[in-house]
Amino acid sequence: MAIAAIQGLRGTGEFTVDFRPTNYREYYTFLEPNGDAPLNALLAMTSSESTDDPKYTNFSDHMPDRKMTVSGLVAADGTSVVFAASDENDFIIPGTILVVADTGEVMHVTAWDSATETATVSRHIGGSATGQTIPDTSEVFVAGFAAKEGADTPDPITFDATTKYNYTQIFRTAFSVSGTLQKTYLRTGPKEAEARDKALKLHMSDIERMMFFGDRDIQNASTSEPTRFTGGIFNEITGVTDADSDFNGDGGISEDQFDRFLIDTVFAWGSKEKVVFCGPTIAGHMQKMGKDRWSPSTFSGSYGVNFTKYTTFAGDLLLHVHPQFRRIPGMADAAVFLDFPYIRYRYLDGRDTNLLEGRQGNGEDRVKHEYLTECGLEMLQDLPHHAIKNWSTLDVT
Which option is the CATH number for 67-145: 2.40.33, 1.10.150, 3.30.450, 2.60.120? Predict the structure, then answer.
């Protein structure tokens, strides 16, 4: 099995021989990289970052599309174009070149009224689309700027980053063994050690599930003891495709449609390498498509998580069948495409996963310990990630 690094993860993609986990999260992923928490195994290799506040904020920015929608038909000789209300209209200023997408007509904006979203334009620049109307709902895009000789500076244009935030969530998993059971010989080994290992697995499974399915919230926010919930991937990203409604209406996607999906959606933003966590149904679709087209190869990535790599024309897909997607209802035919340079594990300073021992009461004839983590997910950029659900069948092209 080949070994390869993954974009956004530190090192060569594997533990060095002298690696020593610094906390129980790393310890768990070191022992069971292909266990129930492969996302956390990979996040352990990213630039995990502490926070000194349970609410953390980042600023997301990208270049705008600068496209608009016409509101109302414009006659062939009309010089006033009204646009549907949109933040994109802020990029129209006197001097802007606009192109009608359907006809190719080039227009030059001579005046702009932001109150009515109306542009006064010089039509058919260079003889483009002469005599043609501009239908209602036509799409128009900015194609540059043209200034007359000796003109003053144009109106300034600016756009701001969007602000996103999330919370750290407190995860606690306790386990207990009675004094009698501690001293009882068991063929399966010491009960306390067994309970410790099982509790850690449950603890990491809880974090993993919230990283995917959690929804950001805070309850009793005005009190001294609020409860915070971290937002997971499926609720933090805006790009979610539903195969039931967005393609053929039957949960099916053809190979040609999937090709376009990769070009137009999955690899439209971010890196040319995506980590794909999927259910077994989608893994089957990928195997059928990939074995004759994309020369899939198996390799071990960071923390030993095993992937099947599909080198497509649009970019590389590193696919891993998530073990929990096999067991969670509705996830067999779902997948999430993650761009690891734009995702991060955040933990409250000093509150990453640790084992807290001796939590039993003074009079109890038992030992009680717990794993405690206060952590959350940070989506540095939203657009490079995407999810798909309800892809139940592979349609024949």
Answer: 2.40.33
